[in-house]
Design a protein that fits this description.
Helices cover 46% and strands 19% of the residues. The protein has helices at 8-19, 111-118, 139-150, 158-174, 179-185, 191-204, 212-218, 223-234, 238-256, 261-267, 273-284, 288-303, and strands at residues 24-27, 33-38, 45-49, 52-58, 60-65, 68-73, 76-80, 84-92, 99-105, 132-136.
């Protein structure tokens, strides 16, 4: 099939499938771009999503934010506008038609300058306040994403062409159906921007005891306003958000730094080992050491050629 006969999606499948020759999550030579290939569905897994555009070109995925489920598949995109701890699961994949996707991180610091150039043209108000949304891929956005993938075969062009494509992708998102959410996240003193500041503080200080009154004062909001807007955007309260950060970091410490459950729980801010174990089991489905043993066995299976998704942006 020639390039003229292939659809954009078929070309995206070819590029990702060829460059991500093995199952896994692959960084690329294009800054901020990762590609993903998995040949089987997997158990739900904790992940930390950053502001990003994720496009599935083959297969399907489920993402749980708080108690809310997002399902997206081929030719859909997931837009994340703020750092969010989630559960994710590849739900449709096979050896014949593996799950293939791309993820491009959004540099929110570049949005204000672009907004100055766009001007005050109205963007459609989002149907939801969530910092995460699923939408159908438009022709214009698909075209920009395809040109981004083509850079993987044209490394000499990256320095010049990448900033242009990145600006176009940001533009398409800003004037799209959920552009208002991205605009508000970068508009100083807007409530979404203040929530973003609260999220940034929690990420940096997750192990500290949390007093909501202090956090609200830090971001110049009332306690009730912080609770309302934080939950509207993240689907959880500040305390629930902090708990997820703590538990994810404890899991990382046990897996990567080989801490035992007691030390890991203490390092992320738990004074009570029994409380840590209870909350860990409620969050991950198993007590700490049993869960860590299962994940390590999964890593062995991956190395033996039996892949299980562990993380994806």
């Amino acid at each position: 099939m020639t390039d003229m006969q292939r659809t954009p999606r078929q070309e995206m499948i070819e590029i990702i499938g060829r460059i991500a020759g093995m199952d896994g999550d692959h960084p690329t030579i294009v800054l901020g771009l990762s590609i993903h290939r998995h040949s089987s569905s997997a158990k739900p897994n904790c992940a930390a999503y950053k502001p990003s555009l994720a496009i599935i070109v083959q297969g399907a995925k489920r993402v749980v934010l708080g108690g809310e489920l997002f399902v997206y598949g081929a030719s859909d995109y997931l837009l994340t506008s703020i750092d969010l701890p989630v559960f994710s699961q590849i739900s449709l994949a096979s050896s014949d038609e593996p799950y293939l996707s791309m993820n491009f991180q959004i540099d929110t610091a570049k949005i204000p300058a672009l907004l100055d150039r766009i001007g005050e043209q109205p963007a459609a108000s989002p149907a939801s306040s969530r910092g995460m949304t699923v939408n159908k891929l438009t022709t214009d956005l698909e075209d920009a994403a395809l040109r981004l993938l083509r850079l993987l075969d044209r490394p000499a062009e990256i320095a010049v062409v990448l900033p242009l494509i990145e600006q176009e992708i940001l533009y398409r998102l800003l004037v799209g159906p959920h552009g208002a959410r991205l605009r508000q996240m970068t508009t100083a003193e807007s409530q979404p921007h203040q929530v973003g500041r609260a999220v940034a503080w929690l990420k940096e200080h997750y192990s500290r005891p949390l007093r909501i009154e202090d956090l609200a004062s830090r971001v110049s909001m009332s306690v009730s306003s912080l609770h309302h807007h934080f939950k509207a955007i993240t689907a959880m309260s500040p305390l629930q958000y902090q708990k997820q950060l703590r538990l994810q970091e404890a899991r990382r410490l046990m897996l990567e730094e080989h801490l035992d459950a007691g030390d890991a729980g203490h390092q992320v801010g738990y004074d009570s080992q029994s409380q840590f174990s209870r909350e860990y089991a409620r969050h991950f489905g198993e007590p700490p050491m049993r869960d860590i043993g299962r994940v390590r066995r999964s890593l062995v299976d991956i190395l033996a050629g039996e892949p299980e998704m562990l993380s994806e942006g």
